[in-house]
Amino acid sequence: MNENLIPRARPYATRRRLEIAETLGSGKDGIVLVVKHKGRPGESAVKVLRGAEAYLREKRVYERLRAQSIRSVVGFNVPQFLGCADGLQTIEMTIVQRPFVVDFAGAHLDGRPEFAAEIRADWEAEKREQSAWATRFHSQARTTPAVLPRPVGMLMSWEQQWVPSCRDSGLLGSASGPQASRRW
Question: Cα dihedral angle (33, 56, 69, 13), rounded to 10 degrees?
Fold first, then answer.
């Protein structure tokens, strides 16, 4: 489905002296490709997004994360922004280990998207139910509810603009450790 986006990755790769290696993932907003650096060791990923709006949202989030030196959120690894090409709607980032957060094309910075109150309430109820299910599942299986409830908590937390207050609590991991509070 998204293979038609690969030709947009080629000019970016050529300019950055990268070689496209393989597809890492694909979804409704685009495709992610592993790229190798010509002449030096290491790999990164190139994400080609389908639409301008999704690209701009994703790019803005990665720029904000880079400006704040954020490398993880509530234990989820966040790729580091390495570069982009607006005309190609392409973003280059580091490859991170699981658990990770990598899809920001639907993210809204500095405000929430407009939804009818009923739709919003239904979504929140569904997320609370999913979180409760995950907690019950893990308690019955006598395992730690390490992964499933956290995404729900992360979404709720980001929406409540908790990033500044959590930096000192250690919930956010940065390259240089806790920093002064800043508005997300």
Answer: 30
Question: Domain of 169?
Answer: 3-174
pTM of the model: 0.69
* Inside any domain, residue 21: yes
Residue by residue, pLDDT tens for the chain (184 residues) are 688 999 999 999 999 999 999 999 999 999 999 999 988 788 999 999 999 999 999 999 899 889 989 898 878 888 999 999 999 999 999 999 988 877 777 766 777 667 788 887 887 788 777 777 666 655 555 544 444 445 555 555 454 433 443 444 444 454 544 332 232 3
Q: At 97, which CATH number? A: 3.30.200.20
Could you tell me if residue 88 is inside a domain?
yes
Domain tally, the chain: 1
- Rounded to whole angstroms, the Cα distance separating 162 from 173 reads 14
> Is 182 a member of any domain?
no
Is residue 27 in some structural domain? yes
Q: Distance between CA atoms of 149 and 64, rounded to whole angstroms?
A: 25
